[in-house]
Structure formats: structure tokens, C-alpha cells
Specification:
Blueprint lengths: L1 H8 L4 H20 L5 E4 L1 H9 L7 E5 L2 H8 L4 H10 L2 E4 L2 H9 L7 E3 L19 E5 L8 H12 L5 E5 L5 H11 L3 E5 L4 H6 L3 E4 L8 H8 L3 E5 L15 E3 L4 H13 L3 H12 L2 H14 L4
Parallel strand pairs: 1-2, 2-3, 3-4, 5-6, 5-8, 6-7, 8-9, 9-10
Helix pairs in contact: 2-3, 3-5, 7-8, 7-11
Length: about 300
Amino acid sequence: MEYIAEATMKNASRLITACLPAYLMSAYLHVLKTTAQLIHTHLAIPLGVLAAVNPRKTPQLITCHGSDITYPMEKTVYLPITRRTLRKADYIATVSNYIKEYAIRLGAPPEKTETIYLGVDTNRFKPIKDNEKTTIGTLGRLVQEKNIDEILYAAKLLSEKTDSQLIIGGDGPDKCRLEKLASKLEIDAIFPGRVHDPVSFHQKLDVFMLASRREGLSISLQEAMSCGVVPVAVNGYGCNEIISDEVNGYLYKPGDTEMIARRMLDAIENPSLGSEARTTIVHRFNSKTSTQRYLELYNELGIS
């Protein structure tokens, strides 16, 4: 769902842009016709906007994921409609405290706004080490906002100290440029394209990297930690809500390539932190917990 917000607002192809009005109209007609007791929309914009203008006054719950909240702060043209949508919602859930703070700044009533970590299925994402060579990886859309460049430059520095391979999973408009950069840096980097089996992808890793500074709280990060992979992530932007530095992973200063390389090496040399990472997910970021809280919210908002 987040792809809709990112693609339509930032780097949409002409085809996506051309299809957007018809898509939104179709969605709105479904809202008008619904007899549901509650409308639960993911993303404040564009989908939350449609539910907010529903003349049936059906109760609305919005889950805010990340760019649907942070982007309007950068592109103020989206501010009025986002603020109106948040204020009209009956309840707002955010995927991290970081996004909750942004939502409240945009106008979400604090008493109606709550962080519900989405979490992952820890029975599905579990540790199974199936590679011999030390492997560092990341997974997500390959767009400029993910800052994959920082990982590549850090991997170049790391290659002078240890033998490892890098896997950049995912697809996107930045893939070709990143492949050329990896080749120029002469690092052992693999670009498998779109990943259809994230479980096996994460189980191949020793270290998971997250350089993005536009996340609500990365699901890929949670999946990797659930698989017992040692995480290395940018400090802030929700990551410090799940990673305690040097306890269950490592945090680094945004943009500090040398520090990223040091943290990569730390993670390689301290694989036991992977067990702590999984324990964190099992106890605090399990999808069963979030599912139960959403069911409670549905009842509180009128679903019998």
C-alpha cells in the first residue's frame, strides 16, 4: 500500500499518473456503496482522504505508515487535506512513535492517536542459517530515498578489512544506477531484483542494513531481526524504537559512511546479537499482538 503513496506523489510513471484518477474514483464509489460498520484505511493519503469524505459517516480508522505523514511536511501542498483527514478520523494508529509525533504535529488528536507496531509472523520468519560466506543484505524498493549508496560506499571500506558479500534485494528506478556504482567500486554485490520469498532472503543474511531515512518502521528490518540477523540501521526514524545500540544490533549517525563500515564489522564479529534481535521481535513486535489490538479497536469503534 505504501507504494501507492510513494509512486503517485513522488516518482510516478506517466502510466501510473494516468490511471490514478480512475483508481481513486473507483475506490470512492466503493466507499459510497459500502454497508460496512467501519472503514479501516492504510495511509492517510490518498486512501484515507476517500474515507474521510464518505457521506454515510461510517466510523474511520486510519493506519499511518510513514511517507503518507512525512511527505506532507516536505510538500506543503498536501498539508491541508492531510490535516483535515487526520482530524476527521475516529481513531488513528501509527506504526511507530516517530510517525505518531509527526501525525500529532499534522493535526491528529493526541487522545485518538496510538502507536501499534505492525510486527511480523515470528513462526514464519525464524533463524535458519543456510550460507557459508558472510553475507550482508538489505531489502526494499530501490529508490533514492533508501540511501543504498551509503551502504555501497561502506561496503567498499569494509572490503579492505574482511571478506563478505552484499545482496541488494528489491527493484525500482534506481537499480541500474546502483549496479553501475557497485561495479565502479569493485565490490562483491548481487542485485537479485524483486524478492518473492523474503523468508529465505533474510535467512541467507548475517547482517541486515537499513539506511533509509523515510521509514515509519521498516517491516524488512523486523523480518530480518526475527530471522536472527544482526541489524545495522540509521539512528532515529523509528529504528531506535526497535534497536538498542550494541544490545540487539547497531545504530549509526546518518550519512557517516565510515561509521557504517565500522558498525558492519561490529555486527559481523558479534553474531550473538542476532539472538537478542529475535527475542526483541518475539516479545514486542509480534504480529499476533498487533492483530489483537486492532480487533479490540474494531470493537471500541462499534463493530459488534
